[in-house]
Amino acid sequence: MVTRAQRNRVLRQPIGLGQKSIATETVDSGHDLDTQARSVLLIDYAQQVEPTDNLPFEDLHPVLLGLFGEVGSIMSTAKKLHREGKAFAGYRQAAIEEFGDALWYLAAICRRLEIGIDTVFSEAIRAAGYKGVLVAGDTPDWQVDIPNRGKPISHLDSVLLKLGEATAALLTLKANPSNPKTVLLSFADCYLECLEAAGMSFRQVVEFNIGKTRGRFLVPTPHTLPTFDDEFEAEERIPEHFEMRIVQCKSGRTVIQWNGVFIGEPLTDNIRDEDGYRFHDVFHFAHASILHWSPTFRSLIKHKRKSNLKIDEAQDGGRAIVIEEGLTAWIFSRAKLHGFFAGHKSISFDMLKTVQQFVSGYEVEACPLKLWEDAILQGYEVFRKIRDNNGGTVIGDRTARRVSYRLS
Prior knowledge:
Elements: H1 4-12, E1 21-26, H2 35-49, H3 61-84, H4 91-113, H5 117-128, E2 132-137, H6 156-170, H7 181-198, H8 202-217, E3 241-248, E4 254-258, E5 261-267, H9 281-291, H10 295-301, H11 309-314, H12 318-336, H13 349-358, H14 369-389, E6 391-397, E7 402-406
Antiparallel strand pairs: 1-2, 3-4, 3-6, 4-5, 6-7
């Protein structure tokens, strides 16, 4: 039972990402938590993701189509679980992401119709007779679950079909937006029922979506960004400022010069048709400058964090180097298809999500996708100049999180 003191504490304190958990509390049907207590988490969610909504505000069409697509992704993920069972190991995380994306589009629709998403869910919960209510809490012993209807959980396939029908009904909002609440309530009810049938945690869905969308679309505040070696001595840190000269020899191989000393091994493109990959170390320099991470660069300049054996092995070791090299090669293969990102101001979300999967389990996974996008675009801007001039100097500035080029 949630006490009045607990409820008041929740309502007094602001709910920010990483400060409060988003949860549900299963309570008796006679519990008297009011609508404000139920809806506070969704108010916070809507506020957190609103700055990430860059779609045309006057047009419902792209938002409705986006929601339709995300519900289709939920169904596709569920189909894989049904077909492959435990073999589809990524189901749970994939489902959390897809449910979160659908919630984002629902919030965007509510925003355009000037209907609070908290109101939609509160009324859907009340109409369906849930025994649980949505609350936000800061006590670790609160049960984390989705609202409970107090009756047997429906089969996932059947509720997914209902969700599809409810989504199709939402498409009528484009032609007749005068009375939208009925179809919104129906969708919210089906959405919650699907969460329950899939065994998903509403808290996880919401928190993951906040982190994902804000990390992708918002320019991060510098002091909130991770740094990975501040507690180490200078000889184990990535330098705050560095200049790496890339020289192409008469043989066609490239070499790197740092502080007047040649380091590393001469490189070629290692492919039949030359594409400039011999200059790919520029991407490691970009990672080091902007992400404050590059096990390859650390190894190259011999600044591995050997004073901490665990970090040296897990973060600076051979496997981490292979991960970065493999990721760099994969991004390069994609970049070739897009003119090495010349004229691009953004990177596709799908590509950035693959980057995130590549580095899962390593310290750099703490970097938001927006920072990865910055590192990729800056790195390729310098790469194009290096390639066009067959060399030059790459300047790294960790403080400004910038990488730049000088012809020399």
